[in-house]
Automatic annotation (TrEMBL):
<dbReference type="InterPro" id="IPR036365">
    <property type="entry name" value="PGBD-like_sf"/>
</dbReference>
<dbReference type="InterPro" id="IPR009045">
    <property type="entry name" value="Zn_M74/Hedgehog-like"/>
</dbReference>
<dbReference type="InterPro" id="IPR039561">
    <property type="entry name" value="Peptidase_M15C"/>
</dbReference>
<dbReference type="Pfam" id="PF13539">
    <property type="entry name" value="Peptidase_M15_4"/>
</dbReference>
<dbReference type="GO" id="GO:0008233">
    <property type="term" value="F:peptidase activity"/>
</dbReference>
<feature type="domain" description="Peptidoglycan binding-like">
    <location>
        <begin position="250"/>
        <end position="313"/>
    </location>
</feature>
<feature type="domain" description="Peptidase M15C">
    <location>
        <begin position="73"/>
        <end position="132"/>
    </location>
</feature>
<feature type="domain" description="Peptidoglycan binding-like">
    <location>
        <begin position="171"/>
        <end position="228"/>
    </location>
</feature>
<protein>
    <submittedName>
        <fullName>Peptidoglycan L-alanyl-D-glutamate endopeptidase CwlK</fullName>
    </submittedName>
</protein>
<dbReference type="InterPro" id="IPR002477">
    <property type="entry name" value="Peptidoglycan-bd-like"/>
</dbReference>
<dbReference type="InterPro" id="IPR036366">
    <property type="entry name" value="PGBDSf"/>
</dbReference>
<dbReference type="Pfam" id="PF01471">
    <property type="entry name" value="PG_binding_1"/>
</dbReference>
Amino acid sequence: MTVSLKTLVNRSIRNMGEVHPVVKDRAVTMIERAYKKGILAQISDGLRTYAEQQALYDKGRTAPGNIVTYAQPGYSYHNFGLAVDFFLVSDDGKRALWTVNKDWKQVAAIGKEIGFEWGGDWSPFKDFPHLQLTGGLSLSDLRAGKKPIFAVQTSYSPPEDDGLLEKGENGTAIKRLQEQLLDMGYRLPKYGANGDFGAETETVVKAFQKDRGIKVDGIVGPVTRQELKEAAKPVLPDETYWVKTPLFCGNGVRAVQGALAANNPPFYPEKGARNNGIDGYYGPKTADAVERFQSYFNLKEDGIYGPNTRKKLLQVLK
C-alpha cells in the first residue's frame, strides 16, 4: 500500500524542527505537489545547531567518513532555519531512496518553482538534497542578526485527513488507539501508550485484526475502526466477584477491569502500572476500583462486583 501524504508530511515536519514558518510551508507544498505527480518525497533535515553543523563538517576531516559539507558552523542556511534537505522514499514509505534520478530532479524543480535555491545547481560541490530560502540575506547578514522578511508569510495547514492511522504517525489519536488496545488486554510492553505509531503498535494492531478476522495490514482504516468500536462495547460477566483466596481470575475479571477503565471518569485498578492494573485478577486494587465506582454512582460501597454494579456499568457505558 502506498504511503499516505499525511505520513510524509508528518515525518517531514518532525525532521525539519523549528525552521522558519515560510520554509516549512513551502517544503510541505513541495511534498504535496510531488505527491500529486506520483513522486514520494520527504524532508530529512531542517534547522541545524552549530554543534550539529560542526559534527557534519568534521566528517572526512577529523572524523571517520567522507566529506559531506564544506560549510562550517554559521556558514550554512540550515543554522538559521532557512534550509531543508529532502530525499525520495519507496512506495511503502519504509526505505529512503538517494539515487538522483528524474524524479529527484522533478522534486527539485518543484522546489525552485516556489522559491527555493537548489544545491544541485551549485559548482563545483553539488548538494543534491539541499534546498534553501534566503530571503535576500547573505550568511554574513544572518550571522550579524538580520532576519529575513518574506513577501507572503503563510502557515502550514495540514492536508485533509485520509482517515488512516499507520506506522510513522503520532499524536493524540495514536495515543487513544494505544490506550484502547491496552484496555482490551493487548500489551505494549516497551513503549506503552506514548502516542507514536511504531513497530510495536503496528504488531499489536495486526494481532487485533487477526483476532477479529479482518484484513491484517497493521493500518487502522474504516474496517478496523469499526471492529475497535464493536470490541469496546461492554460484554460483562454475570458472575459475582469479590476478593478471596485464590483470587478470581480470567477474561471475565479483565472485562470488568476494562469497563471500569473505560468509564468517564475512569476507575483504574492501578493507574500508571502496566496496563493500568488491568491484569485479569480480582485483587484488592480491583476491589478498590469497584468501590470507587460504587461511591461515585451512589451504590452500596462493598467492592463486590455483583448484579447492581454490573447493571450500572452497562448503563454508563452505552
